Amino acid sequence: MSASPTNDPAPPPPGGVLWSLAGDVRGLLMLPAALALQVAHPAVGAGVDEHSAFRTDPWGRGERSLRSLQLWVYGGEAAAEEGRRLRRLHRGIQGTDTRGRRYHSLTPANYAWVHATGFPVYRHAARYLIRPMTEAQERALYAEWLRVGRVLGIHDRDMPQTIEEFWPYYREVLAEEIEATPVVRELVATDSPVPPPDRGPLPLRLPLRLMWPVLRPPLVRFRTFLTVGLMPPDAREAIGLAWTDEQERRLRRFGRVVRVMVPVLPERLRYLPMARQARRAQRLSRPGAGRPAR
Length: 294
Description:
By secondary structure, the protein is an all-alpha fold. The chain has one domain (17-189, 198-277). The protein has 15 helices and two strands. A hairpin with a 5-residue loop joins strand 1 and strand 2. The longest helix has 28 residues, at 202-229. Helix 2 crosses helix 11 (202-229) and helix 4 (58-74) crosses helix 5. The protein starts with 16 loop residues before the first helix and ends in a 9-residue tail after the last helix.
């Protein structure tokens, strides 16, 4: 890979809130809610509907999106290059949204909204799957999320620069733009025709294909449950997604199990590969690391 320009924006700092959150396997459970909130914007939903491979290659698209997200946080110099790649990828994505308006994926309001959704979803989902964030952690997370935005090429003028500015912006988008777009309805449907996984170890693919008619229905229902449940309630209401008291109790029970089980997992199971490598490199970079003890 060619050397990055010296003025590239830096990714979030090692050891920060996002550093711990983005590579934790629990972050995988949060992604469906963030994606659904993104595509609830008419322009974003139309772009995904018309230009994404999420229907024909959902596993491949998910793998590519996850790798991209990991690069933003743990990629070092590669983070900025990934941001440039994404902007090149989105240059030709344009059309007409669900309200009959012309859109382009790199229009600042559209591009910034896709990024902005991660903050409220992470904040809300962490209450169930990890622990509620302190005010200091929320502020640190937002500051780090802004740094990721710069890596993606989002100008400061296009994103609220403080939490105090973020929440009015967020509520305004919910009130004026967010709706149950066709893509949202597909993502929360419990009968989605999701194809069997075509990624992972070869010995597992054939059994998965054979068992997929039995596995798919409960897995799709679980995905829907997490998508709706881990979405912030005000966003859920703006889209018009139903959520019952019984579902809330089930989510709280599930969260308690996750909070107990994940922290005791070995690091190779708790963290995604890129996060594990970055954490190991950080440990080895500390003074005295790797030296024999006296």
